[in-house]
Write a structure and sequence with these properties.
Blueprint: H1 10-30, H2 34-39, H3 43-53, H4 55-72, H5 75-97, H6 102-126, H7 132-153, H8 165-177, H9 179-206, H10 226-238, H11 241-273, H12 277-289, H13 291-307
């Protein structure tokens, strides 16, 4: 067990974290749609187990949850848990335990599960009657119809033209072309949110430090990646077909990274100005709830490359 945990009963703490991760993992099935949000926090108790109590405890907890999901809901959920959450928790917790820095941990926690998911998707698509693209479009269209129906049942009305089959087909086709970006952005956000949640709980509950030396207020995207963003924009605006799709996916992924940089700058400014916690929470809530503020936050993150709000140019990670 890591130093700083005092006289805490290790077995009892592991059990509590295991139960918490299990409840998060099954929430999507038993308390929809709120469970979708709750479910996204499944990895952070597992990250803590790996970091504080070791690889064996982490593997046992993850394996037990995968088995419970398989028996209770189906093997698909068990496999998805392993690929989506268990693998990420293992990488983040183990690499943090070995003293790796924040950026390499985040990169590994994002890319490895994505590659594993890609392999799983390729295996799944081999047994399909239709092409993978056609199957994905059908799946997305079905989800759109289900979403419209759910909101209609809740009393939320839509323009009937939005719900026509032609419109649904067009939306599903567009969604499928940006699935790589959607999955990548989802993986990035999942790693960041769970890593920071684990860091907070480790500090508050156990008096230990996860990701030593990391200050969220000073994180930034390496400046050189602006050329990737520019290249994606050129591909999207000046090309067609596959090249345009690649450009679109690049811009979405880079936009998510600059959104995080914008949030990081916002955290820095809030600390500098000494804003009250309730004011900060209200502003964060507004940013996360309104798409226009997502775009403004992305632009804020991009502007930091030239304006250098935090006077930290040259630092690629946390300071």
């Amino acid at each position: 067990m890591k130093s700083g945990t005092g006289n805490i009963d290790m077995r009892f703490e592991v059990w509590k974290l295991f139960v918490l991760a299990t409840l998060f993992s099954v929430s999507m099935v038993f308390v929809p749609p709120l469970g979708i949000v709750i479910n996204s926090f499944t990895p952070f108790p597992l990250i803590i187990i790996y970091y504080l109590f070791g690889r064996r405890a982490g593997l046992l907890a993850s394996g037990a949850i995968a088995l419970l999901l398989t028996l209770a809901v189906g093997k698909e959920f068990g496999v998805l848990f392993v690929v989506q959450y268990a693998l990420m928790a293992f990488l983040v917790g183990e690499l943090a335990r070995r003293g790796y820095e924040w950026n390499p941990i985040m990169i590994a926690g994002t890319i490895v599960p994505l590659l594993a998911g890609g392999i799983l998707l390729a295996i799944y698509s081999a047994g399909l009657e239709h092409s993978l693209i056609t199957s994905l479009q059908t799946m997305v269209a079905d989800n759109i119809r289900s979403t419209f129906k759910m909101y209609t049942d809740m009393g939320i009305s839509f323009d009937q033209q939005m719900m026509g089959e032609k419109e649904i087909a067009a939306i599903s086709k567009t969604m499928v072309t940006i699935i790589p970006a959607i999955l990548t952005v989802g993986a990035i956000m999942s790693v960041v949110i769970n890593a920071l949640a684990a860091r907070y709980m480790v500090a508050k509950r156990y008096g230990a430090t996860l990701f030593r030396g990391v200050d969220v207020a000073f994180w930034g995207v390496p400046d050189s990646l602006i050329w990737v963003t520019i290249g994606g924009g050129i591909f999207m605006l000046l090309s067609f077909g596959v090249a345009r799709i690649i450009g679109m996916n690049i811009l979405i992924v880079m936009g998510s990274l600059y959104f995080l940089q914008g949030i990081s700058v916002t955290v820095f400014l809030f600390k500098k100005w000494g804003l009250h916690i309730l004011v900060k929470m209200a502003i964060y809530g507004i940013i996360l709830s309104q798409p226009i503020f997502w775009v403004l936050t992305i632009l804020f993150g991009l502007a930091d490359i030239w304006v250098d709000f935090r006077k930290m140019r040259g630092k690629l990670g946390a300071a």
